Amino acid sequence: MFAKASDNYELNHSASSAACRLGPCRLHGEISSQPHSQLWLSYRPVSAGYAVHASARFQELVCPETGDLALAGVSPLWRACEELLAGLEGMLGRRPSRVNATGTAPALLLQLQPSSPDDAISGAAERSLAWPPSPADEGYSIHLNTLHTVISSRSPQGVLYGAFELLRRLRREDPGALAGGGEVVRSAPSAPLRHWDLWDNLDGSVERGYAGPWQHRFDVAAARSSVVYPLGQQRDEQRAHDLARLLASVGINGIGWSNVNACDHGNQHLLSSRNIASMRALVALFYSYGIHSFLTPCFDSPQIVGGLFTSNPQVPEVKAWWAKKIEEVAGAFGDAFRGLVFKGNTEGQPGPGSHGMSQLQGANFFAELLEEVGAICIWRAFSHPEGGVDQALYQFQRFENWDGEARWNVALKIKNGPYDFQVREPVHSLFGHLSNTSLILEFQAAQEYFGHAKHLVALPSQWSSYLGFDLSSRFPPYNVQTLAQVASGGIGRMPFSGIAAVSNIGTSRNWTGHVFSAVNTYGFGRLAWTPTTPAADIMREWVEVTFPRSSSYAVSVLTRMLQRSWEVYENYTSSLGWGFACAANHYDLDDMDRRRHTDHRASATHIGYPRNAGGGYASTYNAKVAARFQSIEQCPEELLLSFHQVPYTHRLRTKNNSTVLEWIYRSHMSGVNAAEGFVTDWLAIEGHVDLGSYPGDAFVDITTRLEIGASDAAAFAKSIREYFETLTGCGLRDGRLQCHAQ
Question: Does this entry carry the keyword Protein biosynthesis (predicted)?
C-alpha cells in the first residue's frame, strides 16, 4: 500500500499516508519564513587559501560606461558588474574597488567589443541585445593576462554570460581562473534560442508544477504560480529577480510567461490591457538579464478580450484587432517583446482549425502581423489524434508539409519525441524532415512523467541521448545531422531554431521541490549552450557549484547517483520503449490496461506497437534511420517496443539473452533495488556534503524524498509484475520464468 500522488504539484501527505518501507515518509516541518535558496549562485566563502590568491587577482573591477541604462538598471552590462561585485565579495570576503580605468593594480575588466563600425560609434549605452539571436554575438572570451583579467563580448548579454562563467569557476575553486599566463577561455552558444517555458496560470496555479509550498493538502485558492502571480496578489520581487539571475547564469535568453493551455485557468485574459501593463516591470527585469519575453495568448482573445463576435482570422476586424494588440504589447515591452506562442486545436484549445484554416495558415497569419514589430510566431507541434490513429504518425503527418511554406519568422516547436515527454521515446522524425523551417526542440524539466519531483531523476542524461542522435541528412555531402545540429539551425542555419524546456520552477524555498531536481534546471541551460557537453560533466559541475565545500567522496557519490537515476527510473517504470504506462494522474502505474490498445499493445502472448511496416511511423525517418528502426535485428533494444510487436519469448541480444518478459520482471526488480540504494548512498555521506546553500534541514528533506521514491518504486514494480502475471500467466520465481496454464 502506498500514498497515491495528487494531480497537483504537492506531495499529498494526509494522516492516512502509509509509511515508507525504509522509514517514515513524512515531510520535515512546516513552511518556513526563511529566504529561498540561491542554488548554484549562493556566493558563500571559498577556502581561505584560494580566497587570498583570488583577492590579489581581482583587486579592482572596471565596467564600461553604460550611460542612462545603468541608472535604470536595465543593461546586462550593469547586471554583470552587480553580479561580480556581489559574487567576489561573498566568496572572497573582499569587495573589489570599482574604477573607471585600469591602473597598476590587478583588475577585472568588462569589455564590449564592436561587432560593426556603427557599434564602435554608438558605444555601449546604445547597444541593444542581439536579435535575431546570434550565437556569435552572444559568445564571450575571458583573457587571463599577466596583470588583468578581461571578459569581452560583442553583446551586453555575452559579457554577462562571461561574468557568470568566471564566477562559476571561482566557486569551484578552479586554479585556472587565477592563471596569468595569457590563457583565453572562449565560449559561444550553439542554439540561437534557449527558451524557458513557464506553465503558470493566471489563476495562480501551475500546470505540471511539483515545486509549490508544502501543505498538508492542496488548495487552489492558496496556490501561487512560479513568478506571474494573479492580479491583486503581491509578487515576490526578490524571487523574480533571483529567477532571472539563475536563468541568465546558464545562458537562457528567452522566457514564455504562461501556460500553453492558453484558454483555461484565467489565461484567456492574458492580453487585457491591465495584464499587459502589470507585466511591464517583470519583462523589463528579465530583459536586463538578456532574456527576451514571449506571450502565449488564447486564440479566441478577439472575442474574450476584444469583445468581437468571432475570432476567425479571415475576418478583417479580427486581423485589425490582433494588429492593434500586438502594437500595444510591443509598445509596452519595447525590444524585450519577441513573439507569440500558440498551441491550437488540441486538448480542447481553439485554433485555426476552428475556422476552416490549417495550422500552417494560422502560423503565417500571426507571423505576418508580428513581422511589423520585429517579432516571431512560435507554433507548437504537439497534438493528440482522435480515434485509433497512431499518435506518433499523426503528429508527423500534421506538420510534414511546412517546409518552404512557413514564413521566415515562424518557428515550429517540437517535443523531443512523438509521444509526450515519456521516459524513453524515439527522436521525433519531423526534425529530420523539415530542413527549411526554424525548429525548436522542446524538453520538459518539470517531472510530469518522472515522479513529480518525489523521485530522483537527473534528465541531462536523457536529453544528451536525444541531442546526440544522428537523424541522417537528406542533403549530400552532409551525411550526419544530429538533433543538436538541427536545434542549432541545421544545414540552412535557420535563424530562430533553438532548444526549450518546460519549467520545473515553483515557490518552494529550494525552487524545484526535490533539491536534486535543480540539476535539470541547470543542466538544461548548460546543454542548450553546448549540446555536446557530456551529461556526466554537467552533473558533476552542478554538484560542485551547488554543494561547494563537500568532500571529494560526497561529490563522487552524488554524481554517480545522478548519472544512474534516469536508467533506474526507467527500469522500475517502463521497459524497452513501450511508451505510456502511467495512470491518469501521470504518476502511478496501476492502470496499465487503460493504455493497452493505444500504446504498448500488450496481449497474452505479444507486446509492442508495430510501427515498422510500410507506411508506419518508422518510414517517416530518413532512409538510413528508417532502415535501422524497421529491422528487429538493428533496432536499439531500448526502443524495441516503440516499433515492433514481439512475442514475450523474443530474446534480447543486449540484455544477457533474456526474453522480453524476463527482462520486464528483472529490470523492475533491479530498479527498485537501485532506488533503495540511493537512500543508502545518501545516508552514507551525511556530514560530508555541504548543504549550506539551502535553508532549513535539506538533508532530512532529501532523505524523505529518496525514501518516497524507493517506496513508490516498489509499488510501481509490483503493479507491473501483477499486470503481466495476470495477462500472460507467467511470473518470475527464484530467478526463473514459470508459467501456469490459462
Answer: no
